[in-house]
C-alpha cells in the first residue's frame, strides 16, 4: 500500500481527528504560573489515544513539580518502529495551553470547542492542539494502511508556555540519549498561513532592566528634586537611537530582517500627579541577529545611559533581566528541512523557504545540543488570541504532510 491509501485514510478520519482535538481542548491544561493545576487530566486522554496506536516503545518522563496536585508534569515519548531503525522522525508538540485572557472577548466558551464555517474554535486548538492531533492521526493513518519507513517518535510534552523546564528541557536532561544526530526533528509550533515558511534559526533574546534614581518631591518644587521620569524619557530615546545606529545590520533571511530594540515595560512610579518621581524603572526587549555579540549591545546601552545620567546628575543601574543566546541555526540543507520541504510542496503545492524569526521556540533546546530541528506548520495564526481557531482543512493537510515524512 502506498501514500494514496494513507491520504484516503486521513480524509476518512477527518471527523475523528476534529473530535479528538475538541475533546482534548475541552480540558484546560494550565501550568501553576497561570494558576492552573497542570496537564495531567488532558495528558491522560492524549496518552489513551496514543496507546491505541500500539507504540513499540512508550517512555514516560514525569517531571516532579510540587506546585501541582499530581506532583508531576507529564511527558510522553511513543516510538513506532520503522523499516530503517537507524533514525527517528520526531514530532514534538506540547499539551499545555495559555490562559483565555479576557473572557468577554470570546464569542463562546473557550473550553467547549465548536466547529463553525470550516473552523474549529477553542483555547489550545492551534497552540498546540492542531499539531498534536495531526501527529497522532498521521501515525494512525500510516499504522492502518502502510509501513513506517523510519522510526517515528511522538513527543508530547508539558510546560512549553512557561519555559519548558518541566517539559522538553527535562526530557533532554534526563534522556539525552533518545535524540540522535541523524534524527529528523520537527517542532510544529509556529508557521504561516500559506505553510511556506520553515523556521530554522532564531535571534538572540535579550531583556535589559534600567533603574534610574533621582530625588522625589513636590511637583511645584522641581528645583529641589531630580525628576527620574524626565531622565528615563531622555534615556529611552537616546538608547533607542544609539542601538539602531550602532547595529544597523540586516539579514533578509529573518523577518523582520534587522535586530529589534524595543522599550516595553515601565514599572509604575508615584501614585499621584503632584509628586515628582525619584525612581523610574524601564525595560528593553531586544531580538538581536545571531552574528551580533550581546556584550556589545550591553556596552552600547551602558555608555549611552551613563552619559544621559551624568548630564542630569542621576544614578543609573543596568541589569540583564533575561539573556537567551540562540544556538547555531539548523542548516538549510539538513535532511529534516529538505524532506519537509518536499512533503509540503507535494501536499500544498507551495515552495517553502527556510527562514529565521525573532521569537524563540522549543527548537532552541534541540539546537543547543547540536541537533537539527525545524519548525513548521500551516496555521491561521490565532495562538494566544481570543476566539483561537484552526482551519479544519489545515488539520487534515498537516496530517498528510506528517504522514508523508513517515513512509
Ligand atoms: Zn505553542
How are the SSEs placed, and which strands pair?
Elements (H helix, E strand, L loop, with lengths): L2 H10 L1 H12 L14 H13 L4 E4 L2 E2 L7 E2 L2 E5 L3 E11 L19 E3 L2 E3 L3 H21 L4 E8 L10 H7 L9 E3 L10 E6 L1 E10 L3 E2 L9 H19 L7 E2 L4 E7 L8 E2 L2 E10 L5 H19 L2 E10 L10 H14 L4 E5 L5 H6 L4 E2 L14 E3 H15 L1
Parallel strand pairs: 5-8, 5-9, 9-19, 10-18, 13-18
Antiparallel strand pairs: 1-4, 2-3, 4-8, 6-7, 7-20, 11-16, 11-17, 12-15, 14-16
Molecular structure report:
There is one protein chain. The chain has 10 helices and 20 strands. It has 2 domains: 276 residues, Aminopeptidase, CATH 3.40.630; 121 residues, Alpha-Beta Plaits, CATH 3.30.70.360. 44% of the residues are buried. Helix 6 runs antiparallel to helix 7. By secondary structure, it is of the alpha/beta class. The protein starts with a helix and ends with a helix. The radius of gyration is 24 Å and the shape is elongated. Strands 1-4-8-5-9-19 form a 6-stranded mixed β-sheet. The site of zinc ion has 5 residues, from helix 4.
Provide a count of the helices: 10
CATH class of the largest domain: Alpha Beta
State the total count of DSSP E strands: 20
CATH superfamily of the largest domain: Zn peptidases
N-C termini distance: 10 Å
> pLDDT below 50 for ≥5 consecutive residues: which ranges?
none
Which secondary-structure class do the elements indicate?
A: alpha/beta
Amino acid at each position: 500500500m502506498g501514500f494514496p491509501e494513507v491520504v484516503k485514510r486521513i480524509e476518512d478520519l477527518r471527523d475523528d481527528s476534529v473530535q479528538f482535538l475538541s475533546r482534548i481542548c475541552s480540558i484546560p491544561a494550565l501550568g501553576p504560573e497561570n494558576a492552573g493545576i497542570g496537564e495531567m487530566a488532558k495528558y491522560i486522554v492524549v496518552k489513551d489515544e496514543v496507546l491505541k496506536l500500539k507504540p513499540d516503545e512508550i517512555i514516560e518522563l514525569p517531571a516532579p513539580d510540587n506546585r501541582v496536585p499530581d506532583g508531576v508534569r507529564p511527558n510522553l515519548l511513543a516510538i513506532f518502529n520503522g523499516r530503517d531503525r537507524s533514525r527517528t522522525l520526531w514530532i514534538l508538540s506540547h499539551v499545555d495551553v495559555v490562559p483565555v485572557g479576557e473572557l468577554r472577548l470570546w464569542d463562546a466558551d473557550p473550553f467547549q470547542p465548536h466547529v463553525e464555517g470550516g473552523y474549529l474554535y477553542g483555547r489550545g486548538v492551534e497552540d498546540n492542539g492542531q499539531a498534536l492531533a495531526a501527529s497522532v492521526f498521521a501515525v494512525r493513518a500510516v499504522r492502518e494502511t502502510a509501513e513506517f519507513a523510519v522510526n517515528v517518535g511522538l513527543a508530547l510534552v508539558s510546560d512549553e508556555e512557561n519555559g519548558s523546564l518541566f517539559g522538553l528541557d527535562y526530557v533532554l536532561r534526563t534522556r539525552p540519549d533518545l535524540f540522535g544526530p541523524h534524527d529528523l526533528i520537527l517542532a510544529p509550533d509556529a508557521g504561516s498561513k500559506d505553510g511556506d515558511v520553515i523556521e530554522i534559526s532564531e535571534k538572540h533574546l535579550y531583556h535589559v532592566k534600567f533603574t534610574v534614581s533621582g530625588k522625589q518631591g513636590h511637583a511645584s518644587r522641581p528645583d529641589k528634586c531630580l525628576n527620574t521620569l524626565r531622565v528615563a524619557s531622555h534615556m529611552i530615546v537616546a538608547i533607542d537611537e544609539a542601538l539602531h545606529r550602532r547595529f544597523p545590520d540586516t539579514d533578509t533571511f529573518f523577518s523582520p530582517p534587522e535586530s529589534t530594540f524595543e522599550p516595553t515595560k515601565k514599572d509604575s512610579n508615584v501614585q499621584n500627579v503632584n509628586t515628582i518621581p525619584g525612581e523610574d524603572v524601564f525595560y528593553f526587549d531586544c531580538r538581536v541577529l545571531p552574528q551580533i555579540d550581546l556584550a556589545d549591545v550591553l556596552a552600547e546601552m551602558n555608555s549611552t545611559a551613563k552619559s544621559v545620567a551624568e548630564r542630569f546628575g542621576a544614578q543609573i543601574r543596568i541589569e540583564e533581566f533575561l539573556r537567551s543566546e540562540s544556538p547555531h541555526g539548523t542548516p538549510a540543507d539538513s535532511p529534516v528541512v529538505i524532506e519537509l520541504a518536499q512533503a509540503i510542496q507535494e501536499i500544498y503545492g507551495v515552495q517553502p523557504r527556510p527562514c529565521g524569526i525573532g521569537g524563540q521556540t522549543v527548537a532552541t533546546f534541540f539546537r543547543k545540543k547540536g541537533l537539527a530541528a525545524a519548525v513548521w506548520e500551516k496555521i491561521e495564526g490565532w495562538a494566544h488570541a481570543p476566539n483561537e481557531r484552526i482551519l479544519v482543512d489545515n488539520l487534515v493537510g498537516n496530517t498528510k504532510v506528517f504522514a508523508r515524512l513517515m513512509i
